[in-house]
Design a protein that fits this description.
With 547 residues, this protein is α/β, with parallel strands linked by helices. The chain has helices at residues 29-40, 57-60, 81-85, 96-109, 199-208, 235-242, 245-251, 272-284, 289-292, 302-320, 323-329, 347-350, 398-401, 413-419, 451-471, 481-496, 526-538, and strands at residues 3-5, 18-25, 45-48, 116-117, 122-128, 133-138, 143-151, 173-176, 191-195, 214-219, 226-227, 343-344, 356-360, 366-369, 373-376, 381-383, 386-389, 404-406, 435-437, 477-479, 544-546. The longest helix has 21 residues, at 451-471.
Length: 547
């Protein structure tokens, strides 16, 4: 049987039943802040997490090369200046160990651990219409009775691990990047196969190529990539970004993607020569600027998309050189920016190494895992000592559909979302009273945002809504069907104008068989989304039925 290694937690002793104002699922970026704000309101709140410590995605994703591709100084909480300035990043795009230490710093500074229950998986949650409360059960059979259920599970926290037939027969090490083990994994000198070349796969591939004996990378969908420039920070540079705290506070929630930079020039207003210079300058920046702050028309206008896509292809061809590598690794059938754009450090050059082979499985897919490795549809077999699967997630929805959530009249969220993925602004779901959500579909936090920017905004909105209810003696909140219909109509109208919906990617749920096709993330912009959320609150939460 295959030895599947994950970051398993030690067993814990069962706890008593909890009676709470609010139960929070998740102790990552959103869950920690949500717990902090609800405690400030004087509510009894606790967070529950399957992990053994805080961190969320940065607890589980500890694979080689895992790091930010948002600049560290903006991937931070902005509600407390002292908290912000009390932490110094060592480099522009920090790696997972440093990110995890930062989240420990946050939890310890705010004294959050005393209200977090680790090593606990939430299995079910049922709404009781008579009591107006949620009954929640854990994997150990414990019960949580809570007025509010708040999900802070993350949009990429339900990994796809049952991908190929025969996985259980593999005699080597089978490792999923999303559940990389805490203990060191020794790949030195081994024959390693890597399945998946999205953002995670790229980070793994470029990090282990010089350590393994040999590596074979299986590529189905080639990716546009941008080079990362990751300078180390001096104390003076740390002080410089900390001095911009108030500017970040005002700026980040109001840009298109929650980053410090934004789209500020129009394609039609620039000459071809000026466009080229802008693209060259932004490409040389070594960040996501080319995707998130060059020309917004690339998302709407096929002509602009084609030109910018060809610019990126040209940059990739210059580095790959080999026509065969270019054919396998450079996209041809979708536009730059309509998929997730990864940053990389020497990824393309990895394929020039004599110990690295790349195999296209677009037209010759992986048929099964065998006891010794992989077999393709045409019968070709590859033998490995270790098989690394960067096979992605059931994004946006999977974290909640893997919990048996039952709303009014016993309706099932898993069943509802199997037919149609619906939310009201990604904050609540009609039919599920007192269920508040973050990083779920139809909000920017589902994909298209600097995550801390969007998660902070959602957590603050949820906290304010609960505070409004308390001030007015209200105990139940649920969006109306009409309000949800209106939000979905707006979401679809906005999405339909873009080229993103014309591609197949996890943004559209295309990587999960049978998943309803819908752009998971609101694409109208972070600032515009915040304005709509603020307007709903200012109206006394119009569209949210309270009693």
């Amino acid at each position: 049987m295959a030895e599947t290694r994950t970051a398993d937690a030690p067993p814990r002793a069962p706890k008593a039943t909890w009676t709470l104002d609010a139960a929070i699922i998740g102790a990552g970026v959103a869950g920690l802040y949500q717990l902090h704000l609800l405690r400030k309101q004087g509510l009894s709140a606790m967070a529950f997490d399957a992990a053994s410590d805080v961190g969320g995605t940065w607890y589980w994703n500890r694979y080689p090369g895992a790091r930010f591709d948002s600049e560290g100084y903006i991937y931070q909480y902005l509600f407390d200046e002292d908290l912000y300035k009390g932490w110094s990043w060592s480099e522009k795009f920090p790696g997972q160990p440093e990110i995890e230490r930062w989240l420990h710093y946050v939890a310890d500074t705010l004294d959050l651990r005393r209200d977090i229950v680790f090593d606990t998986t939430i299995k079910s949650a049922r709404w009781n219409g008579e009591s107006g409360r949620w009954t929640i059960t854990t994997d150990s059979g414990e019960t949580i009775d809570a007025r509010f259920l708040i999900t802070c599970c993350g949009m990429l926290s339900a990994p796809l691990t049952s991908v190929f037939p025969g996985q259980e027969t593999f005699k080597g090490e089978l490792i999923f990047t999303a559940r990389w083990p805490k203990e060191p994994v020794d790949l030195a000198g081994k024959r390693v196969g890597v399945v998946g070349n999205g953002a995670t796969g790229i980070q793994v591939i470029q990090s282990i190529a010089d350590k393994v004996g040999s590596m074979t990378v299986f590529v189905r969908t080639p990716q546009y990539v941008l080079p990362m420039k990751n300078p180390k920070y001096t104390p003076e540079q740390q002080a410089a970004y900390k001095a911009k705290f108030e500017w970040f506070q005002k700026r980040l929630p109001n840009t298109f993607t929650g980053f410090e930079y934004d789209f500020e020039q129009a394609w039609a207003d620039t000459t071809p020569e000026r466009r080229r210079q802008i693209l060259e300058d932004i490409h040389a920046d070594g960040s996501l600027k080319l995707w998130l702050a060059s020309f917004g028309e690339m998302f709407f206008d096929p002509v602009v998309s084609d030109e910018i896509s060809e610019f990126v292809r040209e940059k990739m061809r210059e580095r790959l050189k080999d026509p065969r590598l270019c054919d396998i690794l450079i996209p041809k059938d979708y536009g730059f920016g309509t998929h997730r754009v990864p940053l990389e450090v020497g990824f393309l050059e990895v394929f020039h190494r004599p110990n690295v082979e790349v195999v296209s499985v677009k037209d010759n897919p992986i048929e099964r895992v065998t006891p010794t490795g992989l077999r393709l549809k045409d019968g070709a077999e590859y033998a490995f000592d270790a098989l690394i699967c960067a096979t992605g997630f059931d994004a946006g929805t999977g974290a909640l559909t893997r919990i048996d959530i039952r709303g009014r009249d016993g309706r099932s969220l898993k069943d509802d979302w199997s037919r149609d993925i619906r939310t009201t602004m990604g904050l609540q779901i009609h039919g599920y009273p007192n269920l508040f959500t973050t990083a779920t579909p139809l909000a920017p936090s589902a994909a298209l945002c600097n995550m801390t920017t969007c998660l902070q905004q959602q957590v603050e909105w949820i906290s304010d809504c609960i505070g409004h209810m308390a001030e007015n003696g209200l105990t139940v909140c649920e969006p109306t069907r009409e309000a949800e219909d209106a939000w979905i109509a707006h979401h679809e109208e906005t999405a339909s104008q873009t080229l993103v919906v014309k591609t197949n990617s996890w943004y559209m749920g295309s990587n999960v068989a049978g998943k309803p096709r819908r752009l998971l993330s609101y694409i109208g912009g972070v600032g515009a989304y915040k304005q709509r959320c603020d307007a709903a609150a200012a109206s006394g939460y119009e569209g949210f039925a309270m009693r």
